[in-house]
Specification:
181 residues; alpha+beta; four-stranded antiparallel beta sheet; 4 helices
């Protein structure tokens, strides 16, 4: 049996979150619906228990003040992986610092790729599909007139339940105490 995987995300709500979710459904309708999110810790096994991981999160996030990020341009991780995403422009360094702080103790993991702050649109089935999706996504993003700012004030600790299915385990507020689910 494969080990469980966990991640830490900041859900993106409001008009920009709706835009991303609608774009994702347009570009890759056969994928299950995912809430728009910024990933602070990409999927990983734990180096201990869920309780130990939550203690690490509570300690670090409780001392971290909320911050704002601004979404930049559309991009793709192809050819490494056929994933289309929106870059984080303003606030990317803050996300990298928090990622580095959180990648410790029960949450420590050697990641396959360097951490790049982003908001995933869709992982496509091939590089050519990613190129086509990037063109469409770039055009839609250019036409988007809403705010591109996102306040990161609450994270969510999640666990993979099955392939492409994640469940929320606990909200993790920044600058406060861990709230029970």
């Amino acid at each position: 049996m494969a080990s469980l995987r966990y991640a830490l995300v900041a859900y993106v709500r409001g008009p920009v979150g709706e835009f991303v979710e609608n774009l994702r459904r347009e570009l890759h309708p056969e994928l299950p619906h995912f809430a728009a999110h910024l990933t602070l810790l990409p999927p990983r096994p734990l180096q201990g228990t869920e309780g130990a991981a939550l203690q690490v999160l509570a300690g670090i996030c409780g001392r971290t003040e909320p911050f704002e990020v601004t979404l930049g341009g559309m991009d793709s991780f192809a050819p490494t992986t056929p994933t289309v995403y929106i870059r984080v422009s303003y606030g990317a360094m803050r996300m990298c610092e928090l990622h580095e702080q959180l990648n410790t103790q029960a949450l420590e993991f050697v990641e396959e790729w360097a951490y790049i702050p982003h908001l995933t649109i869709a992982k496509m089935p091939s590089e050519s599909a990613a190129e086509q999706a990037l063109r469409i996504a770039g055009q839609r993003w250019e036409e988007y007139t809403g705010s591109r700012r996102v306040l990161v004030d609450r994270l969510t600790f999640v666990r993979e339940d099955s392939q492409n299915c994640w469940i929320d385990l606990a909200p993790v507020p920044l600058g406060g105490t861990l709230v029970s689910p």
